[in-house]
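User: Some background: our group keeps a shared notebook of sequences we're curious about, and every so often someone picks one and asks for a predicted structure to add to the entry. Today it's my turn. The entry only has the sequence so far, pasted here. Could you supply the structure so I can complete it?
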Amino acid sequence: MDRVVSATEARIRFGELMRRVVENGELVIVERGGSPHVVVVSVAEYERLLKGREQEGEWKGLVNQARAQIQAELGNRQLPPSEDILRRIREERDAQLLAMR
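Assistant: Of course. Here's the predicted structure to add to the notebook entry:
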């Protein structure tokens, strides 16, 4: 469970907070003036978050690359609405399934 502490308490009990974060995997939210300002997390959790951000960036790059490739293939033509594409795919699938019977 996440723990919420004031900045003063975090300063006074920082060693204890570090131990709880590392040993128990807790997240500690530090508030100042009643508003959350920072979160204390373990290095392992921080590295996991960074890896997730890198993977998100890779996905965005792949999506942008795919968009550029599709646009290059389409030229000036417009991409049909996704509903039309899905409908056609489903119709083709249904026809294939019927042919297999």
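Suggested note for the entry: The longest strand covers residues 35-40. DSSP finds four helices and three strands in the chain.
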